[in-house]
Amino acid sequence: MENGGLQLSLAEIVATLGGVLDGVVTPENKLVQRIAPLETADQHSISFCSDTRYQAQLAKTKAACVVLAPSLQAAALEAGLTCIVTDNPYAYFARLTQWWQQSQRDKNPLWGAKHIHPSAVVDERADIHPSAHIGPLCVIERGASIGADTVLTARVHIGQGCSIGQRCILHPGVVIGADGFGFAPENGRWLKIAQLGAVRIGDDVEIGANTCIDRGALDDTVIGEGVKIDNLVQIAHNVQIGAHTVIAGNTGIAGSAKIGEHCAIGGAANILGHLSIASGTQISPTSMVTRSIHRPGLYTGIYPIQTNAEWERTAASIKQVDKMRQRMKKLEQTISAFIESQQQA
Amino acid sequence: MENGGLQLSLAEIVATLGGVLDGVVTPENKLVQRIAPLETADQHSISFCSDTRYQAQLAKTKAACVVLAPSLQAAALEAGLTCIVTDNPYAYFARLTQWWQQSQRDKNPLWGAKHIHPSAVVDERADIHPSAHIGPLCVIERGASIGADTVLTARVHIGQGCSIGQRCILHPGVVIGADGFGFAPENGRWLKIAQLGAVRIGDDVEIGANTCIDRGALDDTVIGEGVKIDNLVQIAHNVQIGAHTVIAGNTGIAGSAKIGEHCAIGGAANILGHLSIASGTQISPTSMVTRSIHRPGLYTGIYPIQTNAEWERTAASIKQVDKMRQRMKKLEQTISAFIESQQQA
Amino acid sequence: MENGGLQLSLAEIVATLGGVLDGVVTPENKLVQRIAPLETADQHSISFCSDTRYQAQLAKTKAACVVLAPSLQAAALEAGLTCIVTDNPYAYFARLTQWWQQSQRDKNPLWGAKHIHPSAVVDERADIHPSAHIGPLCVIERGASIGADTVLTARVHIGQGCSIGQRCILHPGVVIGADGFGFAPENGRWLKIAQLGAVRIGDDVEIGANTCIDRGALDDTVIGEGVKIDNLVQIAHNVQIGAHTVIAGNTGIAGSAKIGEHCAIGGAANILGHLSIASGTQISPTSMVTRSIHRPGLYTGIYPIQTNAEWERTAASIKQVDKMRQRMKKLEQTISAFIESQQQA
Lengths: 345, 345, 345
Known about the structure:
Chain A is an alpha/beta fold. In chain A, the strands form 6 sheets. In chain A, strands 8-11-14-17-22-25-28-31-34 form a 9-stranded parallel sheet, with no helix packed on it. A 9-stranded parallel sheet of chain A has the order 10-13-16-21-24-27-30-33-35, with no helix packed on it. The first copy, chain A, has an 8-stranded parallel sheet with strand order 9-12-15-20-23-26-29-32, with no helix packed on it. In chain A, β18 (183-186) and β19 form a beta hairpin. At the B-C interface, β18, β19, β34, β35 and α5 of B face β4, α4, β36, α5 and α6 of C. β35 (298-300) of chain B pairs antiparallel with β36 of chain C, so a sheet runs across the interface.
């Protein structure tokens, strides 16, 4: 996709987003037409550098202007670059992309200024803020509420009694408030436990395509403000997720798990039910959390990949690792007993 | 969500669901207004205790009444509690939630008494029982059949020729009968194998949000009666799942796998294709089943999680585990040869 | 589902799809009514055998005719079978299933000859080829383009500016062009990075139910021609997938990963972001790729499954495997030092 048809002057950018413009501004670079990574930027591009690890790319870029931190300013000027200096270049870049998007994408691409797309199916007993946007083919059930400036892009389902905060973005296929997975065994069959709770989602939450958040069994499932959830994530009944936690795609969080604030959960990770995860914890992708984590830090449980031939040998030996430990212990005892006996002899 | 506006007397509950009411019934506790867990129950709540492990909570609860098994009756009375005694308190609780739900939720929240929501797209050659409920924005293709009292909540897809039994519940985003994943290689390209089978789903099956069950290649994919499947589960073509098996979220079952009855498959588990799993087998979450299981039992393959620093050392050593086994064997031989030589000397 | 109502003569099949008919053709077997696997084929079935491993089944089948390779021809004739001999029986079988399907299934089951189902929501600024078929309840946003003969089955979402090639098949619930997962941290909150790229999908691509492919951050996410993707797969922003690669269900591919041509990615595998995978690489199911793969081959990282009792011991010992390696080293040194000292003595 073309990066929009927007053209901005560097002066206009600094006037709006702040930062200090440094280096030479010429008629050639005073206007930028696209945002691009350092390596593919051309003389009409604005780029950014948020990390000194990319300093080598800085010397080679053709960008008209680079947004960067004070620590990189000297190197940039030495390389003859024009730059905008700011304390948090990555956040600056984020704001710049938002500006570009406003010129490029309709906020409500399919229905212009309309508040609720006519193809959406909305119960009359739902409470939808007049500034919310309900996209095509969404379903909103009775008693649900949608906060100000929240966008349900398309084909989003909000179940009965569930509430969504302000400024949220829910991507296509999201299902909020399907029944939690609860059954009682009786005579070899499963009896449904009706799920009487709902889902409550705070402000500024973003939820990726086809992600599912189930309603609680008795109490509610609760997602804190500022939480960001990627695509195809499964969040079971009665889970609680603290504010500003991010959860990458394909992850599964089992029932009644309680995740703290400012956590980062890697893609395809899994968290067992009824656990607590301390605020600030990071979980590596594909790791399985089987016990509560009380001390924040980075936790990992990735099984290493090998060529298949090596793996076959490793996998066979792994099953023996407990026996190996026992053999090791026996060997240590044999040796020390023998050495001792020799020394006494 | 408020736990409904229902108010029930203990006498009414016992008259309908059975069990024996014991302890003191006062004007204060004779009516209950909500169902709550032991720890958060108040004097208007009915709670339940299905396990002696929760006996400590029993002593502390403020619940008006607790549903419990005969083994806990004495302890409850001693703690001054009012209780309903029944052999299977968890099943009793399930029936109670269903009662509550009937007063709280519309079975068809968006369209009252109507049988098929007007926004659903239903082929005229589909066979839909008059007591089935087809929610908004569902798609039902030609030749599909939907049994009595089955509920397709919303945005459910039923492909051509697929059949759904009686009293099933399919949650939003479910896709039944998309094509199985089958291609024949020819000259470096993939040739589609048209999927000529369908999906047959038994009675009393529940299927979670955004779960997919593919149609068979030549024969049908078959889901037995009473099976319960959670959200975001992938079931490939020609899989067979026996009656009353439960499958938790994010799980994947590859083509032509045959799973027995009364199995329990944990979340994010995976089962390779063309395997058989014995009835009554339990698979722990995130475990990968790579061979048939002929003897029921609990099987596990969870890679342990550690702090990242510990994991780095473990992961490096795991790749050496086969070499370690060889070194161990050599060491054992060296030592026993040496000891023998010394003893002979 | 009945395998269609089609009846074909063997002569007609060979005339259309090629191959050499051998063995006895009688009034009984000259017409076939269904395609079936060798084991369940009856005297009205045509079957196929693509692998000498199934030769034993060949001797026992009741099929009217078996499609097979020249290497199996003699064995088949000896067993009294009628056969169609062709170099690639699996591809022949694929073409046969396609023929059957044309007689059995409507290409557009719900709306006959119509090009765009009236329930689909299509922006007038989208570019849809007149031979494309847009199924019920699809959403196509502004600036999207859909190539010739492409089928969006039902409830498919194509986001703004995304392009789909010719002869593609997108199954129900697919989401193309939701926002990539990108946020910049600022003062403990997450600032959205607007996703300015799109998704570009080549010709002859098939995408399974509820699979998500996100739009790029600045550049596009790109799926090469002939790629086949199964259900519930997550493809993050700026991923590039080479031509004719196949990806099985539940897999996750993180941002900016670059996968070569003719790769095969097993189910529930995961690939970290910013990696490169060489063309022709195969990844076993559930394996996690944490580094680039430069040499094609089969790579595996499956944690072995055991009975739970065995697993508990293994999992405990795995965490000790690094310490075991150190103990092993120390033991080797102790022994060799001791033996040396004894020999010197």
